[in-house]
Amino acid sequence: MPSMPARPLNPYDPPPPAPQERSAVLCGLAGWVPPHVVTNEELSRRLDTSDDWIRTRTGISRRHFAEPGQATSDLAVEAGRRALLSAGTEAADAVIVATTTPDRSCPATAPLVATRLGLTEAAAFDISAVCTGFVYGLASAAGLIAAGVAERVLLIGADTYSTIVDPQDRANAIIFGDGAGAVVLRAGRPDEPGAVGHFDLGSDGTGEELIMVAAGGSRQRSTPGDVGPQDHHFSMQGKEVYRHAVTRMAASARTALALADYKADDIDHFVPHQANLRILRSVAEDLGLPPERCVSNVESVGNTGAASIPLALADAASHQTIQQGERVLLTAFGGGLTWGSCLLSWPALSQISRPYDRGGVPAS
Ligand code: UT7
């Protein structure tokens, strides 16, 4: 599949050359969540909420939290190692980590992850596009491969929202979980199964304040005034974000479908960012897709940020829900605001290990 189409952004530019014959092809996949399971009942014991409210409003039953001392890179390494194993390789010449919860604000998390995976001297950098980070990461990996800068890229979406969400904030503490998902992409042809392409990416910075961590960046550090502990916590204007998520994900998915010259009915599996089951169902309905084509694991892991799409893919692939040759549409939405979509046809992958037990028993 060709990647980004040429868009006439500047009419005075010379006509762009045709897309190259190199594409990023999916060849490895894995997910990993920390063993500590936090159920709705457990949250209901310390917050003014209930299992019934959480299930009805979000579709979430449980999520996994990192242990004290466990950081995003620890989850990323687990998922990355398993993805390399699934690809049957120990090598990658670039490592990308999409995350909102890097180990530190400087340096990036990816170089440490690369080193811990034995990928010494690989190019390594983070992507910061909140819950759209994995799709932005796919586009970046596809670009590196298409340009001949890299032959094999390890892309990891990893987040530990439990480290930034206020545990007393009932609106957010019930939604987010920790996890990591990873894919390996190799250089291949645009027409082979697993080739990723037809990207739609976008942003709208007027929505900056809808999802944010107010403190910790240059804006706060360069601005005189008190910083309260709350400013270091994640905040989200849920209702507004909900509205934008449904509209933007549906529009972005439609754009990617149009670029590929597909109708919604040509899609076998729709894998949206796992924000909230009601959001996923609304987007699928808007696209005219029956609910059974919408892949969701939000019940078992909650919203895991940049990890959510690869974790949902790993879960579905490990249960053979997605079969070789089927067409898959990925769509994400997140803080920024940011959104993005892309398409791929499912490749032959070796058996993917289950990232967690769907019944809530910690995976070994
Ligand atoms: O990953 C990035 C993208 N993120 C998303 O897309 C998330 C988008 N937003 C959402 O998923 C939903 O807006 C939430 C799950 C956050 C909230 O669901 P909602 O149906 O939009 O509820 P609401 O915010 O309208 O709140 C309804 C009521 C309020 O009470 P009043 O004002 O009606 O008295 C809230 O205070 O529910 C209350 N409430 C809760 N009640 C019990 C809010 N959180 C809770 C809670 N338990 N945990």
From TrEMBL:
UniProt comment concerning the protein's domains: The last Arg residue of the ACP-binding site is essential for the weak association between ACP/AcpP and FabH.
Protein name: Beta-ketoacyl-[acyl-carrier-protein] synthase III
Segments for region (Disordered): 1-21
Family (UniProt): Belongs to the thiolase-like superfamily. FabH family.
Residue ranges of every copy of the Beta-ketoacyl-[acyl-carrier-protein] synthase III C-terminal domain listed in the record: 258-346
Subunit-level organization: Homodimer.
Sections of the chain in a coiled coil: none
Biased composition (Low complexity): 1-10
Listed EC numbers: 2.3.1.180
Gene Ontology CC annotations of this record: cytoplasm
Cell compartment(s), UniProt: Cytoplasm
Keyword terms, alphabetized: Acyltransferase, Cytoplasm, Fatty acid biosynthesis, Fatty acid metabolism, Lipid biosynthesis, Lipid metabolism, Multifunctional enzyme, Transferase
Active site positions: 131, 273, 303
GO MF annotations, alphabetized: 3-oxoacyl-[acyl-carrier-protein] synthase activity; beta-ketoacyl-acyl-carrier-protein synthase III activity
Physiological role: Catalyzes the condensation reaction of fatty acid synthesis by the addition to an acyl acceptor of two carbons from malonyl-ACP. Catalyzes the first condensation reaction which initiates fatty acid synthesis and may therefore play a role in governing the total rate of fatty acid production. Possesses both acetoacetyl-ACP synthase and acetyl transacylase activities. Its substrate specificity determines the biosynthesis of branched-chain and/or straight-chain of fatty acids.
Cited Pfam families: ACP_syn_III, ACP_syn_III_C
Biological processes per GO annotation: fatty acid biosynthetic process; secondary metabolite biosynthetic process
Annotated spans, ACP-binding: 274-278
PANTHER family: 3-OXOACYL-[ACYL-CARRIER-PROTEIN] SYNTHASE 3 (PTHR34069), BETA-KETOACYL-[ACYL-CARRIER-PROTEIN] SYNTHASE III (PTHR34069:SF2)
Pathway: Lipid metabolism; fatty acid biosynthesis
Boundaries of every Beta-ketoacyl-[acyl-carrier-protein] synthase III N-terminal domain copy: 125-205
Reaction equation(s) it catalyzes: 3-methylbutanoyl-CoA + malonyl-[ACP] + H(+) = 5-methyl-3-oxohexanoyl-[ACP] + CO2 + CoA; (2S)-2-methylbutanoyl-CoA + malonyl-[ACP] + H(+) = (4S)-4-methyl-3-oxohexanoyl-[ACP] + CO2 + CoA; malonyl-[ACP] + acetyl-CoA + H(+) = 3-oxobutanoyl-[ACP] + CO2 + CoA; 2-methylpropanoyl-CoA + malonyl-[ACP] + H(+) = 4-methyl-3-oxopentanoyl-[ACP] + CO2 + CoA
